[in-house]
TrEMBL record:
GO terms for molecular function: kinase activity. The keyword RNA-binding does not apply. Keywords: Kinase, Transferase. Transmembrane segments: none annotated. It comes from Aeromicrobium terrae. Signal peptide: none annotated. Coiled coil: none annotated. This is Diacylglycerol kinase.
Length: 360
């Protein structure tokens, strides 16, 4: 029986604490290090930082070099990247150059090669991977598994495909990410305020990679550029969320699409319906439970698949973090075995929950 793969978790925020818990339960992985950004967490046990109620015997550190000196097989990178994309890419390239494989939740623009990132970024990743003999896989639930492998597996049942639409429909009121909620999405801010996410081309940078990955898997060439639609709506009453308070008249909900067309016809669509209270904009698509993913394949036959989830001890936003972390964690052995450089979902073998069946 082979020894467990040695893994470091990079950051212990909203996602990282679930990653620690997931690695602790995985029989093929061993947690050997944890990176933290704040002096307040430096020196604390990983079990305490993950809220496990017990020590794991692994002490967190702010010392990057010390963790790389451990020569782990893989880094599970859970750090916030939405507001520091190019700094995060520098970090990831540094890990590859040090010979450490990486699975990461971001930057999501790296899920699949696309023109949303400068060509030199892709070259840096490939060069670093080759020099260090290491691989990088960026994924999660959305962008990620819910709009790459899930729709492609459903499409494998098709005789003819006219359109694939993949939707996230969710209430974000219990989603704890203040930077994402207020500064990136703009919830609680003036409805017409100019924010980077809503500038032309930015949605395509974030969600375009999964649109392009589906197109590549289906063998179609998309028109350029991708098409974007955005519909921002004000809150019609005051709303309190765990991340931001939303006053009446400020932005409370948004619906957007990133559309891949072929000869002007929509063929592959990623759609988000994001509310901060379940009664907002009732005419928009409604989720199963507090949040769900929906795949609609129009063609022959017409198919619709709904994925609803919620945490055993929390709601759909809690489980959203768990499934994001676990998609990365369960992919670690395959990524370690992969060829150096960027590894997409299309490059990996079937990733399962091997070893995770409950034994109690």
């Amino acid at each position: 029986m082979s020894a467990p793969l040695r893994v470091v978790v990079w950051s212990t925020g909203t996602l990282g604490r679930f990653a620690i818990a997931g690695i602790d339960r995985h029989p093929d992985l061993e947690l050997v290090g944890v990176w933290v950004s704040s002096p307040e967490k430096d020196g604390k046990d990983a079990g305490e930082l993950a809220g496990l109620g017990r020590d794991l015997g692994v002490v967190a550190t702010t010392d990057t070099a010390a963790l790389l000196d451990l020569k782990p097989d893989c880094i599970v990178h859970c750090a916030m990247t939405d507001d520091r994309i190019f700094d995060a890419i520098d970090d990831l390239v540094g890990f590859l150059e040090a010979g450490v494989n990486v699975v990461s939740s971001g930057p999501v623009a790296l899920l699949f090669p696309n023109p949303g990132m400068p060509e030199d970024v892709w070259q840096r990743i490939e060069t670093a991977g080759a020099s260090g003999g290491a691989s990088l896989h960026v994924n999660g639930i959305d962008p990620g598994w819910a709009n790459d492998l899930l729709p492609l597996q459903l499409a494998s049942l098709s005789q003819r495909i006219d359109e694939i639409r993949v939707m996230e429909i969710a209430d974000y009121s219990t989603y704890y990410q203040p930077v994402v909620m207020r500064d990136i999405f703009g919830f609680g801010r003036p409805i017409d305020e100019k924010l980077m996410l809503w500038e032309p081309g930015i949605l395509s940078m974030a969600w375009g990679p999964v649109v392009r990955q589906m197109a590549a898997a289906l063998g179609v060439t998309l028109d350029e550029p991708l098409v974007e639609t955005v519909d921002r709506r004000p809150a019609d009453h005051d709303v309190t969320t765990v991340s931001v308070d939303i006053a009446t008249g400020t932005m409370g909900a948004v619906r957007f699409e990133v559309i891949g067309t072929v000869d002007g016809v929509p063929r592959i669509v990623v759609e988000h319906v994001t509310r901060t209270h379940p009664d907002q904009v009732p005419e928009w698509a409604q989720p199963t439970g507090g949040g769900s993913y929906r795949v609609i394949v129009t063609g022959e036959p017409i198919m619709e698949l709904e994925l609803a989830h919620h945490g055993e001890h929390g709601d759909h936003n809690d489980s959203g973090m768990i499934v994001t972390a676990q998609r990365l964690i369960n992919a670690v052995p395959a990524v370690v075995d992969a060829e150096p450089g960027l590894v997409t979902a299309l490059d990996l073998p079937l990733v399962t929950g091997r070893g995770l069946m409950a034994r109690e």
